[in-house]
């Protein structure tokens, strides 16, 4: 029997991919496996209030508040999410939902909130599912939350847990799946503990090309097969890198993945460029600094102009000096976010 009403809140983080997901098949199945660091500071907090309707509605019934205000333009994405998840959450049309959501990072900072937002919503809905089905094991709960989050936004499935998450079938990764992300199952050298990610906000404008459009352009992309194959190989290589703590190899792999992601964008039809002049300035500064210091600072990119600066915790002071002296000047309004690898979503 359905409970009449209630409320649940989750805080769910964003994540940054090391091996990138770019290209998908039907039903949000990735064209290649990917792996990410779960972040800590960058997160979405979502409260889901639910109230049972007298009669099951013919359509989804919900209100959406973003940072306290009604937000009509997010509603189609949520409707699509409900439509896709209803087969797995058959109670969705029996309730009226109020979804209140806010981000820890500045509004329109160019930081994608789809991973944190969709994972937070998926977790709230799973909590209602658990109310109706109390004997659920934690592993199942997390796996299904990841499965549902994937249907909202592919990369969101990697935001449920921490600290390293892998999504997509890969022959050298035990228990890997296209349907949900798993915690990275192999040994990781302690140098990756508390790994730092300083996000430089180069361009806070909204993206000219959505990631769903970008994924679609991989369909008849001339280099698609080669790229998907490379992602598989990079995941295999990364296993050894993680085990040995080989930072030089880590840097090569991560930077190459970032540039390949953008190379795919530049070589699709239509082609597009999401990097800005300051993105390239920052990359060059990072290379120069790395060559002249003993640090292992490197960069990665999302589907946008912002730069994620990655480095080990024990190099924090030296790299942070460099960032504030040399890189912050390239950020829009001097804005950046200090983040690090995190442990996944939390119920509040
Ligand atoms: O989750 P989506 O559909 O927004 O795709 C995001 C893809 C990248 O962020 C560019 C790479 C990744 O693996 O997160």
From TrEMBL:
GO biological process, one term: isoprenoid biosynthetic process
Highest taxon listed in the record's lineage: Bacteria
Domain Diphosphomevalonate decarboxylase-like N-terminal: 13-172
InterPro entries in the record: GHMP_kinase_C_sf, Mev_decarb, MVD-like_N, Mvd1_C, Ribosomal_Su5_D2-typ_SF, Ribsml_uS5_D2-typ_fold_subgr
MF GO annotations: ATP binding; carboxy-lyase activity
Positions of the Mvd1 C-terminal domain: 199-328
The UniProt record lists the keyword Lipid metabolism: yes
Keyword field: ATP-binding, Lipid biosynthesis, Lipid metabolism, Lyase, Nucleotide-binding
Protein name: Diphosphomevalonate decarboxylase
Originating organism: Arenibacter troitsensis
